[in-house]
Design goal:
It contains no helices and five strands. The protein has about 110 residues and is mostly beta strands. Strands 3-2-4-1-5 form a five-stranded mixed beta sheet, with no helix packed on it.
């Protein structure tokens, strides 16, 4: 018995006050060839207080490999909060959620 399950969850929350531009690029590639277990967790938290140009990036990657299981879980959480400066307020909120589940069961 072999089971293959892949789940993708993307959560993007952006809050923008003032006239500020933020660009984020995400690339995901999945190639299920050999029985492996990949777990990738990326957490990016950006907080801007009082100043215009501050960037904080945190990257965490975890990989685990087993023999006869394929499980791929990718979770990306991005939180951006900008406060202060009450003149010229622009609020943009974008939420994207994609969930794809694939289950293959092969009996020999």
């Amino acid at each position: 018995m072999r089971s293959i399950s892949s789940k993708q969850q993307q959560q993007q929350q952006q809050q923008q006050h003032n006239r500020q531009q933020q660009q984020q690029h995400q690339q995901q590639q999945q190639q299920p060839e050999k029985p492996q277990q990949h777990q990738r967790q990326q957490q990016q938290e950006e907080q801007q207080h009082h100043h215009h140009h501050q960037q904080q990036q945190q990257h965490q990657q975890q990989q685990q490999q087993h023999h006869h299981q394929q499980q791929q879980q990718q979770q990306q959480q991005q939180q951006q909060q900008q406060h202060h400066y009450h003149h010229h307020q622009q609020q943009q909120q974008q939420q994207q959620q994609q969930q794809t589940s694939l289950t293959f069961i092969v009996c020999r």
